[in-house]
Amino acid sequence: MVDKISIIKQILETDVETDKKILSILQLAKEKTKEKKIHIEERISKRKDILLDADLNTGKEKIYAETENISSTGAFIRTEKKIATGEDIAIKFISSGGEELCFVAQVVRVNSNGIGVVVKTISEKNGIKLIKFIDQF
């Protein structure tokens, strides 16, 4: 802070009190113009509105939920239980025909309706099944 004051003093040739006022104004301006982070979702694959039963396992509890939309790389899952952003969970989707698709996902978004997840680990077999299943819609 002293360096900034001395620089201001050299440039403006002002007294100490004026320097402090200028520094205070500069700090206020800096706080007002701080860069705000804007989240822009980048999706590798388009999501489709598909309603499926989903069983979630956080390692601490099992939660029954439903999908709202799904892609080969993620999903939005409606649930009343809140799971923390960044947490890894095991997910099992169950199709209307009883077919199961299992994988591990990471929670990347949480809102009042549920959680957005991105596929973190999926077997090659389940990955192919998931893509084929989504392509049906």
- Compute the number of structural domains: 2
> Tell me, what's the shape?
elongated
Number of helices: 3
CATH fold descriptor of the largest domain: Thrombin, subunit H
Number of strands: 6
Topology of helices and strands:
Blueprint: H1 2-12, H2 16-32, E1 53-57, E2 62-70, E3 74-78, E4 88-94, E5 100-111, E6 114-121, H3 124-135
Antiparallel strand pairs: 1-2, 1-4, 2-3, 3-6, 4-5, 5-6
Helix pairs in contact: 1-2
Structure at a glance:
By secondary structure, this protein is α+β, with helices and mostly antiparallel strands. The chain has helices spanning 2-12, 16-32, 124-135, and strands spanning 53-57, 62-70, 74-78, 88-94, 100-111, 114-121.
What does this structure look like?
The protein has 137 residues and is an alpha+beta fold. The chain has 2 domains: 31 residues; 83 residues, Thrombin, subunit H, CATH 2.40.10. The protein has a 6-stranded antiparallel barrel with strand order 1-2-3-6-5-4. Strand 1 and strand 2 form a beta hairpin.
Keywords:
137 residues; 2 domains; 3 helices; single chain; alpha+beta; Thrombin, subunit H
